[in-house]
Amino acid sequence: MPKKKNSRPRRYWLFKSEPDVYGIDQLEKDGSTFWNGVRNYQARNLLRDEILLDDGVLFYHSNAKPMAVVGLARVCKEGYPDQTQFEDGGKYHDPDSDPADPRWYHVDVKFVAKAKEPLTRDMMKAEPKLAEMMLLQRGSRLSVQPVTRSEWQTVLRLAGMKESW
DNA sequence: GCCAACGTTGGC
DNA sequence: GCCAACGTTGGC
User: Fold this and answer.
1) Which of A53, A66, A82, A86 is buried most deeply by CB count within 10 Å?
2) Which nucleotide is nearest to A41 (CA to C1')?
3) Is A141 near strand C, with its CB below 7 A from some atom of it?
4) Distance of CA A138 to the CA centre of its chain
5) How far apart are CA A83 and CA A102, in angstroms?
6) Nucleotide nearest to A39 (CA to C1')
7) How far is the CA of A10 from the C1' of C1 (A)?
8) How far apart are CA A72 and CA A113, in angstroms?
9) Distance A121 CA to B2 C1' (A)
10) CA A60 to C1' B1, whole Å
11) Closest Cα to residue A40, out of A140, A138, A131, A136?
């Protein structure tokens, strides 16, 4: 069972998405979306237990030209079961997941802002303050990952974005 | 519980 | 298109 969610200072995250599948423009148009289809336990634990209402989300385009942080979102609904795991024949169907104890969770995020210019991976790599960022580490594949407050502030500054909530 | 084989992610 | 790094699966 999910542990009790205590109130705590806002935390920061980076969500990866392939723009061909779901990009920042689509999020801007939709206003908000559920971040579904994550099938990795480490990411699941974050989505279910750690990522809370009003947390900040950097929207990153992976497998794209350019690879970049392209916008800002915020969590508008905390972890709840991803229904696509129960859709028979669906792409995200997991026949081993028990509806009484769902295996996969997701959150909803709301569009906040688009970067004035995409903050490219190359630009991020050139910034010493971001050297420790998980995104930039070799072999880092987690699609939902934590970002430190200092990294968050640096990224926002470089991308010309402001928190507006 | 180990680990080889396999599948996927995602930068290059 | 390649392939390194990871995660998962399944035989033993």
Assistant:
1) A82
2) C7
3) yes
4) 19
5) 9
6) C7
7) 42
8) 5
9) 38
10) 38
11) A140
Going by their DSSP bridges, the two strands A12-17 and A56-61 should be labelled as: parallel
* Nearest residue by alpha-carbon distance to C1' of B8: A141
The torsion angles phi and psi of A129, rounded to 5 degrees, stand at -65, -15
Domains and CATH numbers, chain A: 12-159 (3.10.590.10)
Q: Which nucleotide is nearest to A67 (CA to C1')?
A: B11
**Burial level of A75, CB count in 10 A (0-12/13-18/19+)?**
buried
Closest residue (CA to C1') to nucleotide B9 in the complex: A141
φ, ψ (nearest 5 deg) of residue A140: -75, 115
Residue A7: what are its φ and ψ, rounded to 5°?
Answer: -75, 145
Per-residue pLDDT tens over the stretch A22-48? 999 999 999 999 998 899 999 999 999
Q: What distance in Å separates the CA atoms of residue A42 and residue A31, rounded to the nearest whole number?
A: 27
Which secondary-structure segment (H or E) carries A5?
A: none
10 Å Cβ neighbour count for A43?
22
From the alpha carbon of A18, which nucleotide's C1' atom is closest?
B10
| pTM for the full predicted model | 0.92
Of A56, A57, A69, the C-alpha closest to A136 is A69
- Write the pLDDT tens digit of every residue in A61-82: 999 989 999 999 999 999 999 9
